[in-house]
Specification:
Elements: H1 8-22, E1 27-31, H2 38-53, E2 56-61, H3 64-77, E3 83-87, E4 90-91, E5 97-101, H4 102-105, H5 108-113, E6 119-125, H6 133-142, E7 147-152, E8 169-173, H7 176-181, E9 188-194, E10 205-206, E11 209-210, H8 212-221, H9 224-235, E12 241-244, H10 248-260, E13 265-268, H11 274-285, E14 291-294, E15 309-312, H12 319-327, E16 339-343, H13 360-363, H14 383-386, E17 390-393, E18 396-401, E19 411-412, E20 418-422, E21 425-431, E22 438-443, E23 448-455, H15 457-469, H16 480-483, H17 490-498, H18 509-535
Parallel strand pairs: 1-7, 1-8, 2-5, 2-6, 3-5, 6-7, 9-16, 12-14, 12-15, 13-14, 15-16
Antiparallel strand pairs: 3-4, 9-18, 10-11, 17-18, 19-20, 20-21, 21-22, 22-23
Helix pairs in contact: 1-2, 2-3, 9-10, 17-18
Length: 537
């Protein structure tokens, strides 16, 4: 019995990874959101792999905190494993498991040693970095004899370099939605903080993201630290949190501004002495500090479930970075019901954490306005997300935002069953046995299954769209072809005629596509739905 037991999905991830290796794949990846225990998964994977295959394992990391975290988790899972460190001047090459700093192990002397160590498994932590030259040098050196698995919260990269060159497959994937529905993460709520005069149009961009120094100058000129401090005091109260800034100067200035508002705060950054940084982090964990401001040192490898507010004062064009920042505050903690994201930069308008459901008002509409509305129980939806309001408080402007950019195409059958067309599949909502609760169903050409049961409407919408987004022909409302007012294709018109569908004059390709989807979904769902309604009368 080990100290860190596997959750069901973590065991599934290990089985999926080993299944890829058994099928002949040598490089695969697993994608799980921050807070879902990637380190615990690969610690158990290493233990099992070495027991069954022998050899040694290498864990590649790029930060001191990640190295310490990996060492701790592996030792907890199997205290009998000899775990060593390859970092800076330390070279524990005799260990069974080597936790290696990429900066150290990519040096020529280390690259000469690695092939002789008998490494059979390589774990790449935060593998969205893996396309970088230093990472590639190490992975390519080891992968001739070893199997490689990468772990990350997102495989997106700001600079568009293809991770497909590094990993052959994604063996396992879980989303933030899965974490929330499973109770492993708390749901986020977003508020956009508008900084007057903040313009990002002319900020320099390098490798796909804003240049930190130039970005810092623009934020400083707009007096962003003072606006953020006031916004934090107004919207977050005494809740503990973390604020991300692009430069050390801004992080330090922001901490001072927070203290001026009566909020205990301190800055942490990479250039401060390691002992001082650790002491500051410990003060936050102990409750002596309410807010940590930082210059990009807490985006990865920092576990602080106590934190429930994330201030994004570091505008970014990188979905990966955005997810990493918000992920810091999604871990559950006693008394923590949600996470609050104060988006200073408007990043929540550019990037999505995951794909959630369309707004409830849109679920009630099909392609034509004369359809009866879908009945929505009172109190079933999050009002502040559905109806955003703009509020001015002094010089602070705050607006509720939907962090998930709901963009899914929802339609309804003739009898009113909400569904998402996804190629040959249909993802749909269904009343559950308990009033005010819903099921999420998946209907295939032959057969189907219940994906989720017992959810309130908001979470059911969320789960349905997340399930639909995993399918290859998932439908987006904003797809380019849907925005164009193109006439129906001859094939569409022929099919509509064979199905006996009325196509009004002026109908577009989008309209006819929706009519056909509704026809097939109605045939698959409406008979059972009418029978259910009769039973409940």
């Amino acid at each position: 019995m080990t100290a860190l037991q596997l959750r069901p999905y973590q065991a599934e991830a290990i089985s999926a990874i080993l299944g890829e290796f058994a099928s002949g794949r040598r490089r695969t990846a697993a994608v799980l959101p921050t807070g879902m225990g990637k380190t615990v998964i690969f610690a158990h994977l290493i233990r099992r792999w070495l027991a069954e295959h022998g050899g040694r394992a290498v864990v590649l990391v790029h930060r001191d905190e990640l190295a310490a975290q990996a060492l701790d988790k592996i030792r907890q899972v199997d205290p009998d494993l000899h775990v060593g460190l390859v970092q800076a001047e330390r070279r524990d090459y005799a260990a069974q498991v080597l936790v290696c700093s990429v900066q150290t192990v990519s040096r020529p002397d280390a690259l000469q040693v690695l092939p002789e160590l008998g490494v059979s498994l390589v774990v790449v932590d935060e593998c969205h970095h893996a396309a970088a030259p230093t990472w590639r040098a190490v992975i390519d050196t080891l992968s001739g004899r070893a199997f490689v698995v990468g772990f990350t919260a997102t495989l997106d990269r700001a600079d568009d370099r293809g991770l497909g060159e590094v990993f052959e497959t994604v063996a396992y994937r879980r989303s933030i939605v899965d974490g929330i529905l499973g109770g492993y993460l708390v749901p986020p709520r977003g508020r956009r903080i508008v900084v007057q005069g903040l313009r990002l149009d002319n900020v320099k961009v390098h490798a796909g993201d804003f240049v930190p120094g130039h970005l810092g100058s623009v934020l400083g000129y707009a007096d962003a630290p003072r606006v953020v401090a006031k916004a934090y005091a107004e919207h977050a109260g005494d809740r503990p949190g973390v604020a991300f800034w692009p430069t050390v100067t801004l992080a330090t200035t922001a901490a001072e501004a927070l203290r001026d508002q009566g909020i205990p705060a301190a800055a942490v950054h990479g250039s401060m002495p390691l002992d001082e940084r650790r002491a500051t982090l410990q003060a936050f964990m102990a409750g002596d500090l309410q807010v940590l401001t930082n210059a990009m040192v807490l985006t990865e490898g920092w576990d602080a479930p106590r934190a429930e507010v994330c201030v994004i004062a570091r505008p970014t064009r990188s979905p990966a970075l955005y997810v990493q920042m918000v992920g810091r505050v999604l871990r559950p903690y006693p008394g923590k019901r949600e996470a609050l994201v104060l988006d200073v930069s408007g990043a929540s308008e550019d990037h999505r954490l995951a794909t959630l459901a369309v707004l409830a008002q849109d679920v009630a509409r099909g392609p034509y306005d004369d359809q009866p509305p879908l009945h929505i129980p009172d109190g079933a939806l999050l009002t502040d997300v559905i109806t955003p309001e703009l509020a001015r408080r002094g010089q602070v402007i705050a607006q509720d935002v939907d962090l998930f950019h709901r963009d899914t195409l929802w339609l309804r059958t003739y009898d009113g069953v909400p569904f998402i067309p996804a190629g040959d599949d249909i993802v749909f909502l269904w009343p559950d046995d308990q009033p005010g609760r819903y099921r999420v169903g998946l209907r295939r050409r032959r057969g189907g299954e219940w994906l989720r049961t017992g959810l309130d409407l908001e979470m059911a919408l969320l789960a349905a769209e997340d399930a639909a987004s995993e399918r290859a022909q998932y439908s987006s409302r904003s797809a380019p072809w849907r925005r164009r007012r193109e006439p129906p294709s001859p094939g569409q018109l022929e099919l509509a005629q064979r199905l006996g569908l009325y196509v009004p004059d002026g109908a577009t390709k989008r309209d006819v596509s929706d009519l056909i989807s509704i026809h097939f979904a109605s045939g698959a769902l409406d008979r059972a739905y009418r029978a259910l309604q009769e039973q409940r009368k």
